[in-house]
Specification:
3 helices; globular; binds guanosine-5'-monophosphate; binds zinc ion
Length: 134
């Protein structure tokens, strides 16, 4: 299914031209318009799923296999030293486009790209709460 008001539906299906690194029947991989680092790319399914919760299981598997292929190839092309895979779900988690996508962010030694969080201590209360209710 496509969503007529969704920019990523249009990009993924070629209705709006964009820098495409790879395409198959399920996905388009494009360069992010506001890259965190040189080569920052997005894996976008051609069908509309708002987020990972909604994503079809088979496509979820294929997306990860494609990510592996892309970062292997792009590491050779870009000469980067590592990769972050980032996938945001929900506004509070930083999602701004509500069509599932997986960020492939190349990392270069000392690049200063800010992907991180403050390390807290796992409390006994949280551990017991989560494990007891799962
Ligand atoms: P999110 O914050 O939802 O995880 O990521 C959305 C990403 O899509 C951002 O990194 C943003 O730069 C990128 N983006 C938004 N609109 C466009 C567009 O029209 N073209 C491209 N190539 N990237 C876009
Ligand atoms: Zn869409």
């Amino acid at each position: 299914m496509k969503d007529d008001n969704c920019i990523f539906c249009k990009l993924a299906n070629g209705e709006i031209p964009t820098a495409t690194l790879y395409e198959d029947e399920d996905f388009r991989v494009i360069l992010d318009a506001n890259p965190a680092s040189k080569g920052h790319a997005l894996i976008i399914p051609k069908e509309h799923y708002a987020n990972l919760y909604e994503l079809d299981d088979t496509l979820a598997g294929k997306a990860m296999i494609l990510a592996k292929k892309m970062i292997n190839r792009l590491t050779d092309v870009l000469g980067c030293d590592g990769y972050n895979l980032v996938q945001n779900n929900g506004e509070c988690a930083g999602q701004t486009v509500f069509h599932f996508h997986l960020h492939l962010i190349p990392r270069y030694k000392d690049d200063g790209v800010g992907i991180g969080w403050k390390l807290n201590e796992l409390t006994e209360e949280d551990r017991e709460d989560i494990l007891s209710r799962l």
